[in-house]
Every structure is written in structure tokens, then in C-alpha cells.
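Section 5: illustrative case.
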């Protein structure tokens, strides 16, 4: 096998055959022995944590700063290494009790972690290495995402992956090696099956395990659970406890796993572990409700709305606790209000459910609990009001939630709740033109948790609007420092640099955005535009094609394509591209302006005047007046051209081209 292969798929039905084939590959030196990637072993990052256990101790000796730069990613993917890797960037939630940890990271957080881990692994490699993994078809989505990022970003790493089915669609076409079936292999025992933590695909061993009396199976699982107790065995320990003799211990272990996965944003694992916990928890109990709420929240975050609704409906049927009913009503409302497809949002139904949540929370007898729950519900109702375009009402609701917290909660209670409220009020204030007040609220939110990166992005955007680009840049770069690799921060910095005319730096940032996230549509839009301005038309065309593959109707990309076709002299194709852009967005001024250039260059100055007139109706711009003056001159409409040049001069008095054209007209 050649050393430059990046992605090898060892295909076979049985693990023992695949592992033998994986070990016999002629690939670079293995980073670790063959890793069993089955998620039942260690849960999320069953593969990633093995890599980190190999690399982190060495890196701590050779380059402790490298470990410190990736503390968040390492501690998330390998909790058993937390004793070696102290937190350098720790969010406030890590120090709060469970009932105060209300944030659920978005599913895209795992991509940030994967990119950070990939950079750490890349910087640790002493030379070409191979990563050999079996059972990839049973891996958690976090590991599959990590391997995809490694395949894309770590050039010195060859992936050799064993699976009966194609392992990584996103990593391109692999080289396929078929694992030869082994003859005369001894049949495993029930003990072997349990020792594999239930990951063995040896059918005779599994059948022998099933043939054991239930109490004997439970004894084997109890013994294995005792071996694992004391480790952070996220996957294996709960599995053995479930099949052992202590269902109460199993429920508690599953809860600890679910709580960890929710905090870290491992939503697929929550969706799998939560129902297992629900089967063990007593219906209507506090633990049962915690499993229900966390699982429904994760399912909603993954877009599995119907299953989340089923859990909330079950909670309403099985509980008479007003807190459960209020929270179920809130959760149901948010499933409607947050639906990613605006056409599928039923905001009327969402309003009905959130009103029920508010009505119940208003009646809660405990003043502190009422202040938190009611404020939480009012904040949710504010989102629905925003979706309906009622910003003033939304602002009033958020302010009432802040007033409740100030009046009825202890000063140090629920800091994350307060942070969210300040940040939400800032968004509403900014949208209603009260930028300076919004800035004060974002300052408050950041003061509560200086390690929450998203608020730096929001404040940076606001500072940019207020004409403070240096301060905006500082916030974008702070977001980069307090977070694992954050594509949005680099994208925002690219926009800032683009506005300043620094095309090369903007391009470098956009390159990095797309290295971190190849599906970042707006980065393709902006980079295609930058490349077009830099004269790199072939590269710009590649970005247009990549972006249109993600969003075939994207108006901006069709507009850039029109510019490229114009530059190539293919005016008919350019016209089709601009027409497509304007069908998608009739108010896209840049498409009108650039179609005007194409029409002028193709001998249609009248069409150019029409397009520029429509573009100017969308907003004054000296370049548009200048170009329209040029087209009017070509039509012999000299007086109108002179008026346009004067308007252009008034808007850009220092522009030498405008001044020269005006002098020429005046002299003529």
C-alpha cells in the first residue's frame, strides 16, 4: 500500500477479519494500536479520546502551551484527561448547579471541537502517521465528524478504516481493501462478549451469552461494571449497569452521561442515552422528568421534532406537576417558533403553548422559582413576537423578565439566565435603532461570562455599525481566543477587512473559514467576489460552482457569475446569470449595477441606464451616478449626464475620476 494514501476502507463483515487486514496494511507508522471505534465503549469521541490519551501526556512534556491552547477541546473529548489539563478558558456554566445550566450548545459546536482537535493532532505529529480504526459504522457522530476533519486538514495522516459499509462519504473516494475471512478461528465465550463491552460481532459468542440464565448474565455485567467504576466510562459503564442487578445505579450512570453530553453539545448521544434512562426511571419522578426534558431538547436541536413532541405529550399525560406542564408547554412552543423552515412555523399554535407556560409559571408559589420560570417563559414568548415582527412587544417581554430577576432572584443566582436576557435585549435594542443601549447590554452579558464567544461576535458587529472598526476587530479576535476554532469569527473579520479594502487579508480569512467549514455558504459568496476583484477568475468560478452546489438559487453567486462571464466577453451567458440573480432577489443592487456594465459593454447603453436607475432607487451611490453618466453620454443625453456627475461629486468630492469627468463636461 502506498504511503501517500489518505483514506483506506477495509471492507468486511466481521471485526476480526477487518482488524487482521488493517494490521497488515503497508501504511505509515500507526499513531496508536488499532482503535475500536464503537460508541458503546466511551460514548462520544470513543476514537478521539484514545488519540488524546496517546498524545496529550507527550505534548504536556514537550509543548504544554499547545495543550493549553486546546484545553476546551481536550477536556470535552476526553473527560478522563481533565486532571491533566486544567481549564484555561472555562465558561461560567462549568461552575453552576444543574438547575442553573440552561444553555444547550448548538449541534455545530462539535465541528468547532473537531477542528480544534485536528489542529492539536496535526501539531503533535512528528511525521507521517496512520490512524487505524475498526467498527467505524458503530461510531458516534462526533468521531465520524472528527475523522472527516482529519482527512481534510491533516495532510500527514493516513486514515485506515474498517467497516462493512462505506465509512466516510464526506472524505472522498477511499481505496478499498477487502478483508479475507479467517478460517478455523476459535469461537468466543459469553465472557468474551461481555469483556468486549457488547461490541463483539462474534455471533456464536453472543448466542452463548443469550443462552445463559438471566442472573448469570447479570453477574458477568456486574463484574465488568466493577472493573470500570472509577473511570469516566461514558459508554460502557451504563451499558453494564443496565444489564446488571442494580437498575437504580444504571439510571444514575445514564443520567450523569446525559448531563455531560448535554453540557458539551453531544446531542446525538443524548438522543440515544436519554430513552435508555427513561426506561429505568420511575414514571413521574424528578429523574424521569430530567431525562424527558433533556432528551426532548436534544431531539429538537437535531430536527427530530415529532419525537420531541411525543416526549412532551407523554410528560403532560403522566405528570401533574405544574413545573413539568409549564416546561412542556414552553418546549412545545419553541419547536414551532424555532423551526428552521419559516413556512412550517405555526406561530399561532406556538403562542397558545407559550401562553399556557406563562399562565402556569405565574401561579408557582415559590417567589424565586416563579421569577426564574416566568422570566424564562417570557423570553421565549419574546422570540415568537420577533418572528411575528412585533419588536416593541418582544422588547417589553424581555425587560419584564430582567425586572423579575432583579427583583425576586438573589444577586448571585442564575447568572446565565441574566446573561441570555441581556444579550437578547441587546439584539432587540439594536434592531430598533438604539445601538448605544444595546452595546451596554452586551457589555453586561460579556461581563457575566467572558468566555462565551458568541457575544463577542455580536458586540463586534454592533461596534462596526457604530463606526468603531478597531474595537470590532478586537472583539472578533477575542472570540477566536476564547473558543475552539470559530468560523464565524474569521468570516466577520474578513468582512471587516474587505470593507477596508484589504483584499489579501480578507481572502486569507475566508480561506480559513472554508478550511474549518466547507459548507459555509456566505464564505464562498464573499471569496468568489474577492477573487473576481483580484482577477483570479478561474478560482472565483470554482467558488461560484461550490456555492451554487449548496444553494442553487443564491442571488449573490449568480451575480458574481455574471461578472465573470462579462469579463470573459460571454455577454449572453452573463445576462442569463444576472437575470437569475435578479429573479432570486429583485432588489439586489449589485446585480443591477453589474448587469448595467455588461449591457454597456455589449452595446446597450439604454439598458444600462435602466438598470442603473433601478439600482439608484435602492440607494444613492457615487459609482452608480458616475456609470449612469457614462451611459447617458453614449446616448447623447449630455445634460442628464452632467447632473449625474454633479450628484456623484457631492457624494464623493475627493474622487479624481468624477472630478476629471466633470471638468471635461464643463469644458465641453
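Designed sequence:
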Amino acid at each position: 500500500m502506498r504511503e501517500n494514501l489518505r483514506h483506506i476502507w477495509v471492507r468486511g463483515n466481521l471485526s476480526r477479519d477487518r482488524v487482521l487486514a488493517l494490521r497488515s496494511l503497508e501504511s505509515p507508522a500507526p499513531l496508536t494500536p488499532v482503535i475500536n471505534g464503537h460508541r458503546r465503549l466511551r460514548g462520544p469521541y470513543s476514537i478521539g479520546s484514545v488519540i488524546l490519551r496517546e498524545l496529550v501526556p507527550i505534548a504536556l512534556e514537550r509543548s504544554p502551551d499547545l495543550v493549553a491552547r486546546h484545553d476546551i477541546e481536550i477536556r470535552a473529548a476526553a473527560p478522563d484527561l481533565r486532571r491533566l489539563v486544567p481549564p484555561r478558558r472555562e465558561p461560567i456554566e462549568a461552575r453552576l448547579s444543574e438547575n442553573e445550566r440552561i444553555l444547550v450548545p448548538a449541534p455545530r459546536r462539535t465541528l468547532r471541537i473537531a477542528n480544534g482537535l485536528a489542529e492539536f493532532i496535526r501539531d503533535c505529529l512528528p511525521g507521517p502517521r496512520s490512524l487505524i480504526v475498526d467498527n467505524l459504522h458503530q461510531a458516534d457522530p462526533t468521531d465520524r465528524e472528527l475523522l472527516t476533519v482529519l482527512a481534510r486538514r491533516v495532510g500527514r495522516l493516513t486514515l485506515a478504516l474498517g467497516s462493512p459499509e462505506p465509512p466516510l462519504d464526506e472524505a472522498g473516494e477511499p481505496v478499498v481493501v477487502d478483508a479475507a475471512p479467517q478460517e478455523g478461528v476459535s469461537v468466543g465465550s459469553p465472557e468474551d462478549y461481555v469483556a468486549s463491552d457488547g461490541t463483539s460481532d462474534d455471533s456464536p459468542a453472543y448466542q452463548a451469552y443469550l443462552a445463559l440464565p438471566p442472573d448469570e448474565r447479570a453477574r458477568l455485567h456486574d463484574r465488568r461494571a466493577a472493573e470500570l467504576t472509577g473511570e469516566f466510562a461514558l459508554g460502557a459503564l451504563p451499558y453494564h449497569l443496565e444489564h446488571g442487578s442494580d437498575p437504580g445505579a444504571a439510571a444514575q450512570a445514564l443520567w450523569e452521561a446525559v448531563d455531560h453530553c448535554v453540557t458539551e453539545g453531544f446531542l446525538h448521544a443524548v438522543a440515544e442515552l436519554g430513552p435508555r434512562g427513561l426506561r429505568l426511571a420511575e414514571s413521574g419522578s424528578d429523574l424521569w422528568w430530567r431525562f424527558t426534558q433533556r432528551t426532548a431538547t436534544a431531539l429538537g436541536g437535531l430536527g427530530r421534532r415529532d419525537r420531541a413532541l411525543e416526549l412532551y405529550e407523554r410528560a403532560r399525560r403522566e405528570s401533574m406537576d405544574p413545573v413539568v406542564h409549564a416546561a412542556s408547554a414552553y418546549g412545545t412552543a419553541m419547536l414551532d417558533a424555532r423551526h428552521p423552515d419559516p413556512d412550517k412555523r405555526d406561530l399561532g399554535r406556538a403562542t397558545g403553548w407559550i401562553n399556557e407556560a406563562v399562565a402556569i409559571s405565574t401561579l408557582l408559589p415559590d417567589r424565586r422559582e416563579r421569577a426564574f420560570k416566568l422570566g424564562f417563559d417570557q423570553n421565549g414568548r419574546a422570540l415568537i413576537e420577533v418572528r411575528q415582527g412585533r419588536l416593541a412587544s418582544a422588547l417589553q417581554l424581555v425587560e419584564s423578565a430582567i425586572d423579575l430577576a432583579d427583583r425576586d432572584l438573589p444577586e448571585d443566582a442564575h447568572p446565565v439566565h441574566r446573561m441570555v436576557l441581556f444579550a437578547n435585549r441587546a439584539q432587540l435594542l439594536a434592531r430598533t435603532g438604539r445601538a448605544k443601549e444595546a452595546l451596554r447590554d452586551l457589555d453586561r452579558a460579556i461581563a457575566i461570562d467572558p468566555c462565551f464567544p458568541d457575544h463577542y461576535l455580536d458586540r463586534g458587529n454592533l461596534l462596526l455599525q457604530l463606526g468603531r472598526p478597531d474595537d470590532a476587530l478586537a472583539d472578533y479576535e477575542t472570540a477566536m481566543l476564547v473558543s475552539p476554532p470559530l468560523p464565524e469569527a474569521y468570516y466577520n473579520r474578513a468582512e471587516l477587512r474587505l470593507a477596508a479594502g484589504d483584499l489579501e487579508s480578507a481572502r486569507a480569512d475566508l480561506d480559513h473559514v472554508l478550511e474549518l467549514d466547507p459548507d459555509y455558504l456566505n464564505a464562498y459568496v464573499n471569496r468568489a467576489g474577492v477573487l473576481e476583484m483580484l482577477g483570479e477568475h478561474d478560482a472565483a468560478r470554482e467558488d461560484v460552482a461550490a456555492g451554487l452546489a449548496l444553494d442553487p438559487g443564491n442571488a449573490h453567486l449568480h451575480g458574481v457569475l455574471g461578472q465573470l462571464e462579462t469579463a470573459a466577453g460571454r455577454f449572453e451567458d452573463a445576462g442569463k446569470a444576472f437575470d437569475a440573480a435578479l429573479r432570486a432577489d429583485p432588489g439586489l443592487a449589485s446585480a443591477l449595477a453589474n448587469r448595467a456594465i455588461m449591457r454597456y459593454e455589449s452595446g446597450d447603453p439604454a439598458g444600462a441606464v435602466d438598470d442603473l436607475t433601478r439600482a439608484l432607487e435602492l440607494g444613492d451611490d457615487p459609482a452608480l451616478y458616475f456609470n449612469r453618466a457614462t451611459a447617458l453620454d453614449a446616448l447623447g443625453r449630455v445634460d442628464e449626464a452632467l447632473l449625474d456627475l454633479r450628484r456623484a461629486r457631492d457624494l464623493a468630492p475627493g474622487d479624481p475620476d468624477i472630478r476629471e469627468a466633470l471638468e471635461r463636461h464643463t469644458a465641453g
